[in-house]
């Protein structure tokens, strides 16, 4: 297992390198740069001022040279300074935003699993019943609802009309004057809507995967044998069938990490949450290349680690996978 883990960690290096090369190249294909935006705000700035800015930011060098200079800094864990916002270090900006995005994504993943697994199990056990058909229709409706539209509806309903939940930011204006428990409650209230919206589509998708996997498992011979022995139906379903039915779902957990992090760009912008998604959106608009690349690298690392953790969880749940890892 340790050899497999070391091999996977080493394999992440060329994969991450390839991601950065593609991202860096695609980013520079976009028209304009930070110097265009800065000089356009000052009518007295001419071509000479723009050229000086390009030299200051190393944008006058060819793209491969720029990438080499950036990679040399990254190897030293230096992502450079932001082109905007008082030229703060990129790592400092990321350190402020990463905990927020991780909190939302982890909470969304927990909510997805807590809701999707029971829905999938009930739909499979009561296949073709009224309950199954009702859940199926509900799931397909959830697939059809755009996330940004759902976010706006929930903001209007719970934030404007009912006034139950805040609709933007992470804390209230009087956050510092609250006690520790009140601060925790206030923080949680601000996260409810973003977490629900972020998990909404995932609940629909994962419940379908759980249902499909459960239907396949409960038809296996060992399930029929367990029922023939007189085991309670609850034991058969949740102890024998569900554990094997969750194996494909564990794999999907790793694949869903990019979608959750990518969705943060939309939800954090809508709800005004200072996370990585909002930082990425603002950096793209301002052509802040160091921040964009820093955010992409962190996102890629989180995605690769998510896939690795999913593989390890699959090995923990399935002895056959463990034996394959030991022999590799």
Task: Describe the fold and architecture.
- This protein is mostly helical.
- It has 13 helices and no strands.
- It has a domain at 95-286: MetI-like fold (Orthogonal Bundle), CATH 1.10.3720.
- Helices cover 78% and strands 0% of the residues.
- Helix 5 packs antiparallel against helix 6 and helix 10 (233-271) runs antiparallel to helix 12 (289-317).
Kindly report the average pLDDT value: 79
Give the low-confidence spans: none
Helix amount:
over 70%
Q: Could you give the distance between the termini?
A: 9 Å
CATH superfamily of the domain at 95-286: MetI-like
Q: What is the H/E order?
A: HHHHHHHHHHHHH
Attribute tags:
mainly alpha; 78% helix; 328 residues; 13 helices; MetI-like fold
Give a brief rundown of this model:
This protein has a domain at 95-286: MetI-like (MetI-like fold), CATH 1.10.3720.
Blueprint of the fold:
Elements (H helix, E strand, L loop, with lengths): L1 H28 L4 H7 L6 H10 L6 H13 L14 H36 L4 H15 L2 H15 L18 H38 L3 H8 L4 H39 L4 H10 L3 H29 L1 H9 L1
Helix pairs in contact: 1-12, 2-3, 5-6, 5-8, 5-10, 5-12, 6-8, 7-8, 7-10, 8-10, 10-11, 10-12, 11-12, 12-13
């Amino acid at each position: 297992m340790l050899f497999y883990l070391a091999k996977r960690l080493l394999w992440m290096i060329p994969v991450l390198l390839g991601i950065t090369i593609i991202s860096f190249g695609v980013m520079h294909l976009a028209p304009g740069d930070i110097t265009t935006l800065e000089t356009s705000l000052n009518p007295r700035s001419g071509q000479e001022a723009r050229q000086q800015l390009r030299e200051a930011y190393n944008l006058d060098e060819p793209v491969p040279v720029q990438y080499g200079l950036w990679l040399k800094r990254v190897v030293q864990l230096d992502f450079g300074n932001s082109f905007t916002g008082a030229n703060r270090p990129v790592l400092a900006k990321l350190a402020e935003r990463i905990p927020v995005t991780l909190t939302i994504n982890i909470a969304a993943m927990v909510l997805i699993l807590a809701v999707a697994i029971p829905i999938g199990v009930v739909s499979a056990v009561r296949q073709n019943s009224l309950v199954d058909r009702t859940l199926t229709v509900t799931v397909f409706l959830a697939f059809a609802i755009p996330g940004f539209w759902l976010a706006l509806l929930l903001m209007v309903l719970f934030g404007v009309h009912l006034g139950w939940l805040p609709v933007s930011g992470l804390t209230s204006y009087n956050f510092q004057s609250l006690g520790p428990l009140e601060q925790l409650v206030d923080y949680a209230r601000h996260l409810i809507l973003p977490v629900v919206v972020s998990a909404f589509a995932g609940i629909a998708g994962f419940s379908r995967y759980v249902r499909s996997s459960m239907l396949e498992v409960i038809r296996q011979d060992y399930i029929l044998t367990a029922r023939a022995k007189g085991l309670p139906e609850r034991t058969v379903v949740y102890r024998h069938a569900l554990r094997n039915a969750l194996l494909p779902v564990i794999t999907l957990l790793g694949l869903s990490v990019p979608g959750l992090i990518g969705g943060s760009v939309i939800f954090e912008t809508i709800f005004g949450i200072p996370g990585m998604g909002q930082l990425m959106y603002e950096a793209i608009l301002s052509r802040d290349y160091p921040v964009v690349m820093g955010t992409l690298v962190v996102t890629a690392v989180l995605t690769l680690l998510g896939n690795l953790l999913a593989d390890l969880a699959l090995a923990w749940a399935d002895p056959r996978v463990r034996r394959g890892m030991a022999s590799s």
